[in-house]
C-alpha cells in the first residue's frame, strides 16, 4: 500500500518536486522555484478527503475500479462545530429510536466516529444537544447520521463533528432499539465497525485501515 501511495503522490504533485517537497513542506516547495508543481503538496496532518482520494482513489470517475476507499454520496449537512474529523468507526443501525445512539455515546469515545444508519427517516431526530454534549465530553470525534438531528443551533457550537441529512424538531421513540456494531450501508457505502472514517467539508470517505499521506 505504501508503494502505491508514494507512486500516486508523485504523479499528482510532480515528479521533480513532490518526493522531497511533500516531506519538507510548503515553504521548501516554494523555494524549489519553477521546478515545483503548481499545486502545493497537501498538509499531511489535515488528511483532507480530497488529498486522500488523490492517493487512495487515483482512477478517474469514468474508470471502473475497486479503490481502497469508499466515498459517501454527498447527502450530508455539516451540523457540528468541527468540520473536519476522523477516527475508527463504531456503528448503530436503528429506525426512529435512539437508545443505542445514546448508549454508544455514553462510552469512552477514544477518538472514534459513531456512524448511525437511521434509515434516512425524516420523521424524528436521533441526536440532540444533551447526547451530543455527552459525546464530546466522552471523547468522540464525530457522528454521522443517516437521519436527522435536533437542537442544531447548540450542536453547531460544540467541538464535535456532526454530519446528518437534516434537522427535525421531534424526538425519536425509545422502543425497537436496533443493532449495535453491525455493518451499515447507506449513501453508497458500507461501513463496518473498525473501519476508518475521514470527514471534512468536502465529504466523507471510508477505508478498511488507517490512511496516511
Ligand atoms: O432526547 C433526545 O432523544 C435527543 C435530545 O433532544 C438531546 O439529546 O438533547
Ligand atoms: Mg435536546
UniProtKB/TrEMBL annotation:
Chain positions recorded as substrate binding sites: 128-131, 150
Domain of life: Eukaryota
UniProt KW Membrane keyword: no
Keywords: Lyase, Magnesium, Metal-binding
Entry EC no(s): 4.1.1.112, 4.1.3.17
Gene Ontology BP annotations: regulation of RNA metabolic process
Protein name: 4-hydroxy-4-methyl-2-oxoglutarate aldolase
